[in-house]
Amino acid sequence: MKLKFDIIDKISIGFTFAIFIGVISSYINLGMLSVFFSVIMPLLFLCNTLLAIYGLFKKKYFYITGTLLYLFCFTFFFQVSYTPKDKDNNTVSILSYNVRAFQQYISKNKNASTEIIKFIDSIGADIVVFQESSYKDSRNVQGYPYHFLGYRAHIDKSLLTIYSKYPIINKGFIDFPNSKNNAIYADIKINEDTLRVYNAHLQSYVISPYILTQKYSDFSYWKSLNSKIKKQVEQARLIKHHANKTNNNVIICGDFNATPYSQTYRILKKNFKDSYLSSGNGFGETYSRLYYPLRLDYFLSSGNINVINHYNYDVNLSDHEPISIKFKIKKDTLKH
């Protein structure tokens, strides 16, 4: 007996297949498809959910396949979390911000650098990490007796910095081959425990409305995009391999330039907790240039770290928005 599908049936099957391709692309590199599906996955979920509701009314239960596949393979893109009042003096706070060189070469706002530093002062986080920092402006940050300015003369890498109110007892670089991107880390002594903080800035796909509408966005561009995806995935593997070798509690944070539906995110998150998923609210977007809620900046923590709060800040001083968390290290499982 030949199955007959009407137009809505075919649309539902098509959207289910799209979710399936999105799942596959979060495990293996499918080139431009990986980027495309990692961005539109929330929209695919919404479309599949609407079709699932329609299918239930029509008793066409295969309509729910796409929605179930999404829920089984991915986390939800919108969070509602209870935010406890901050009355515990034993918490530690950390803020991450891609400051885009303090906007000194880009922004029309000549006071952007000063405003960014004022914002940092107003938050008063115990630890602050910057991506795409500026050596000149990074020295103007006050109130942090311990810092790691990842500047090295004659080495052309994106500048990363770590500031801390707690002693930094060890630090180092993770250099990514054939890339200006890199990561740094610092071992920070917090009371009786040592916390390792990784500050990472991973390879960007360099996608913008301008690029997508220009005629030079031809085969050569998409070929280079595939190379960038491979670089980013390999960079994620290097960080995770490095983090797996330490006995300290670990937080991996920074600008990953990847959505939660990407292979990069899957690699870095493995056996770690995403602070937004446990303690965040709303869409959690950190990048706004494409007028679409993209979450590209993260805090991922090892099991002994209990995140109390996750904050997103609506601060229009860079192309990224800052995020911060407050956390405690479980006393019964301390690593030294």
Automatic annotation (TrEMBL):
Recorded GO MF terms: endonuclease activity; exonuclease activity; metal ion binding
Any GO BP annotation: DNA repair
InterPro entries: Endo/exonu/phosph_ase_sf, Endo/exonuclease/phosphatase, TDP2-like
Entry superkingdom: Bacteria
Classification of source organism: Bacteria, Pseudomonadati, Bacteroidota, Flavobacteriia, Flavobacteriales
Cofactor: Mg(2+); Mn(2+)
Membrane spanning residue stretches: 7-28, 34-54, 61-82
Keyword Manganese: no
Domain Endonuclease/exonuclease/phosphatase: 95-320
Pfam families: Exo_endo_phos (PF03372)
Keyword Endoplasmic reticulum: no
Keywords on record: DNA damage, DNA repair, Endonuclease, Exonuclease, Hydrolase, Magnesium, Membrane, Metal-binding, Nuclease, Transmembrane, Transmembrane helix
Name of the protein: Metal-dependent hydrolase, endonuclease/exonuclease/phosphatase family
